[in-house]
Hints:
Elements: H1 8-36, H2 39-50, H3 59-111, E1 112-113, E2 118-121, E3 124-127
Antiparallel strand pairs: 1-2, 2-3
Helix pairs in contact: 1-3, 2-3
InterPro entries: HisK_dim/P_dom, HisK_dim/P_sf
GO molecular function, one term: phosphorelay sensor kinase activity
Pfam family, one: HisKA
Amino acid sequence: MSKMIYTPSNIDDGTKDSRQRILSDKIRDTFADKLRNPLVPIRTYADMLTEGKFGNLNETQNEKLEVIRQCASLLGKNISDILAMLDAMNMLESTEDQTVKDRRMRHRSKYCDDEVGGARKGARVVQQSE
């Protein structure tokens, strides 16, 4: 079994990946919390107005209320679509990250040998600290 040797390049990759994931999570949270949540009372009050909970509405008010309901519904659908795209992108990045890690592990296994305790590069042997 091989030991992982950290180099400045793969440490930076990990930091970059974690920053991208944090940013992606923040974007997703913003869409979910800041945009979707305000739609709940808009839809609820629109439904209550339509049902006459606050009194009867005239025809013009009902038409305008229907526009509000349709726009709120469309906005909710668009937000859900964006969240689904963000999730798909995160899944794709996770798959790509795993593929890169798999390649690194296969590559690393050619050069690292636990029995010898060194990392081989050509004819040289570089000792690993344990």
